[in-house]
């Protein structure tokens, strides 16, 4: 084995490759992927190489560039009854057909959105000695900085570093949050909570339920935040910023910068979700998907983030879901009874929020659909 100047263990030849040693050496630096780039890395370590992604890129001959996710304007939501009905219809169609949509004129100040991205960048660009005090793999902590939450579970590491925050229902004390992004994250979380409540109301109506149905099920109670930093990558065709996955949430609201890079899988095609000034990206998560609540009426779809050579790319995701330590007395979640019938029997078993979240942390992004672990009447191959 060879310890490089970057602090990464690499094999002298392929037969000697020791992935576990390479991962541990990387983790021990607490410098993340950004630390690799600051060390002058020219080629990415083997632990980051996505063989499946490389094969997929070579096999795709015709990926449509004409598809785009729906964009929904919320400006007339409370001003015109017919416009409100039209918006609800668009939300319903987007959730059933895409699982993703963008919203504009949503009420969150663009200046605040810009500051969230800027402060997230500032955190990740702090001196490593400052960031190290937040570095941890204890998923029960409310403030965590690390690289790849599933570093030791996944077959391949992703090219990103992340600051994770639990902002509801029991957020950290203000002094526990990094000073560089403290005020902004607190203010933006309040705005996202308000917006999320509105979206859950629209989703409830779209499902033919009482407007407060999803809110009363505590879907808007928990809020988990990830501020992601994707450094420029010297070999972006060999790795991914985030590998293909679905979100463990009822609902996710994503803010991405002008670099873009997000793709969603729609009808077996990867579709780009480009940066759109002032827009927020909304997607259905596993807990909602059809997931355990709508019984597969709304779709939690696969998505990924490409690595890039220009970086850094910044994104901030807000996930409406409870976290591990918030779920000690968690309720059971299962398909809404009002949506079931003889023709539409339950697809998923009931499970607690803690069980579902814990499953994601245990399995990581392993390529296996998270919901398959909760499916009823699974086939022998599942």
TrEMBL record:
Keyword Metal-binding among UniProt keywords: yes
Stored Pfam families: 2OG-FeII_Oxy (PF03171), DIOX_N (PF14226)
Keyword Signal (UniProt): no
Sorted UniProt keywords: Iron, Metal-binding, Oxidoreductase
Annotated ranges, domain Fe2OG dioxygenase: 221-324
Family the entry assigns: Belongs to the iron/ascorbate-dependent oxidoreductase family.
Protein name in the entry: Fe2OG dioxygenase domain-containing protein
Species: Rehmannia glutinosa
